[in-house]
Design a protein that fits this description.
Layout lengths: L1 E6 L17 H14 L3 H7 L2 H4 L2 H21 L7 E4 L3 H8 L5 H18 L5 E7 L3 H12 L4 E8 L2 E7 H13 L4 E4 L12 H11 L23 H13 L4 H10 L2 E6 L7 H7 L4 E4 L3 H10 L2
Parallel strand pairs: 1-2, 1-7, 7-8
Antiparallel strand pairs: 3-5, 3-6, 4-5
Helix pairs in contact: 1-4, 1-6, 4-5, 4-6, 6-9, 7-8, 9-10
Length: about 300
């Protein structure tokens, strides 16, 4: 029996999200390590809030990195096995690289804070946005983007599951895209509460800044294959890893293909390693013969450990 691990990104955060893991020592110690790196009490942020501060990109990114690494460490400490492969959704790709031994955790904490700052600086608040398009084919979403762009940037950003695609671009184009998608038959099309238009060409300036910053970050080939968002392939060398992370910022997250690739590698279960249950339910929709699990609390970690031995 083979299984894969996947790590969530922004959108899975909530105040109190780590309480379900009880007193597992790896949870608190991981947050203490990240807090020391940033000189900021991330544990207080996730346990007490406020929600508005947690939702700020510069906080969310290092918090979700710490959360995913904490759960992975708890999984391994409980006797959980290493997977056949890993991936992370958007920001979660950094968590996967830490878990796979490609990147030092402390370096990743600093890097995700830098990444968040670069993304916010690339597009001022209110200029960009994202929207979820439900019940429309991928080609239909692409057509809606072409019809509604009107000279602005409007592109598919996350191919999350069949019939669930997120688009990103200029705020005015997002609003036109929502209407175009509805006209083409989308069941729902809603603007998301996100000011940073991730995974579209508006992120090119942030990608350039990230490329320069990554030159000073030590990277190693992963001990476990990591499938990257932009390529759905492994990056075996430090230079290839840097290129994949830079490209990820302005390229769509190809999540459907990622889960399919995991199944092709023999994974019969895909476990979401982190708080919440965002990625696990997508697995069945993408690949009907693969089970999605969520390591969303202490009991789930122990149950999955026993099931995946």
């Amino acid at each position: 029996m083979s299984f894969a691990l996947v790590f969530p990104g922004q959108g899975s955060q909530s105040v109190g999200m780590m309480q379900a893991y009880g007193d597992l020592p790896e949870i608190r110690s991981t947050f203490e390590e990240a807090s020391e790196v940033l000189g900021q009490d991330l544990w207080a942020l996730v346990t007490e809030g406020p929600e508005e501060a947690l939702a700020q990109t510069v906080n969310t990114q290092p918090v979700m990195l710490a959360a995913g690494v904490a759960v992975f460490r708890a999984w391994r400490a409980a006797g959980g096995a290493m997977p056949c492969c890993m991936a992370g959704h958007s920001l979660g790709e950094y968590t996967a690289l830490v878990a796979a031994g490609s990147m030092d955790f402390r370096d990743a904490v600093r890097l995700t804070r830098f990444r968040a700052e670069a993304m916010q600086q690339a597009v001022p608040a209110g200029v960009g946005g994202m929207a979820a398009i439900l019940g429309l084919s991928d080609d239909g979403v692409r057509q809606a983007c072409r019809q509604a762009a009107g000279g602005d940037v409007l592109e598919p950003a996350n191919f999350n599951s069949p019939g669930q695609v997120v688009i990103a671009g200029h705020r005015s184009a997002i609003e036109r895209g929502v209407e175009a998608a509805k006209a083409l038959g989308a069941k729902r099309a809603v603007v998301l509460a996100m000011s940073v238009p991730s995974h579209c060409s508006l992120m090119k300036p942030a990608a350039d800044a990230l490329a320069r910053h990554l030159q000073d970050v030590a990277l190693q080939p992963p001990a476990v294959p990591v499938l990257h968002n932009a390529t759905v392939a492994e990056a075996g060398s430090p230079e290839a890893l840097r290129e994949a992370l830079v490209r990820q910022l302005y390229s769509p997250v190809r999540w459907v293909e990622t889960v399919q690739a995991m199944a092709a590698r023999g994974a019969t279960q895909v476990a979401e390693c982190g708080p919440g249950k965002v990625l696990a339910p997508l697995v069945k929709r993408i690949q009907g013969d693969v089970q999605g699990l969520a390591l969303s609390d202490e009991a789930a970690i122990m149950a999955a450990r026993d099931a995946l031995q």
